[in-house]
Amino acid sequence: MLKLNSVTVNYGKYSAVRQIDIEVSEGEIVVLLGANGAGKTTTFKTISGLLKPTGGTVNFEGAPINGKSPDRIVQAGIVQCAEDRKLFPQMSVQQNLMMGGYIHRSKKTQLKESLKEVYELFPILYDKRDESARLLSGGQQQMLAIGRALMAKPKLMLLDEPSIGLAPLVVEQMFTSIQHINKDGTTILLAEQNANAALSIADKGYVFENGRIVIEGTSEELFSNDEIRKAYIGA
Question: Which residue range or ranges hold the ABC transporter domain (predicted)?
Fold first, then answer.
């Protein structure tokens, strides 16, 4: 579904990502592991069209998308849920969700069905649908950010650090929801520092260090790698 070939991304003279190769097959959950500044968010922004690669290609469903505008990439089926959520704080929960479905605004029946699905996945959002997004807890705001992304009916969802700043119980609930979204047919590319939680639901993963991919493998292979366990799992 998604293939990055030798992708390099520069900020001026600084290479934030250097010749990375990533493959995501339809139906998978794939995780990008690494510390802050390792290159995960830059990779997401490049896939989303917010950054242009200096070298290499990004292909989605067999066609190149590097060079396409972000709105065209959303229309193609890739939706990013940003690390800092990027909610509209003064707007209500439901208004935020409807903004996520903007590209389907002419399909009223589909929007209603999508809204129903989000509320079934996150019932607390239905209870708070008329409240301002800024009044939600951190976990509820993350649910809203994911729900808003789902409103665009993505084929591939990019989730950037969904567990950051959340309590352990909320993190567990969040990853259960991500599994549910995947089982309902959405392919997931996940960037995470919480390796233990991410690898527990992922099919495979890539480990970033200083803009490069240094290790890749199935979740089982990464779990059993002593270096990965010491660096990211604490065992």
Answer: 2-235
Percent of the chain having pLDDT more than 90? 71
CB-based contact 160:194 (threshold 8 Å):
no
In the structure encoding, which two tokens stand for residue 124, read together?
Answer: 């607390």
Residue 193, sorted as left (phi over 0), alpha (psi -120 to 50) or beta, turns out to be: alpha
**pTM (whole model) above 0.85:** yes
pLDDT digits (tens, 9 = 90+) for 120-164: 999 999 999 999 999 999 899 999 999 999 999 999 999 998 888
Torsion on CA atoms 132, 133, 139, 144, rounded to nearest 10: 120
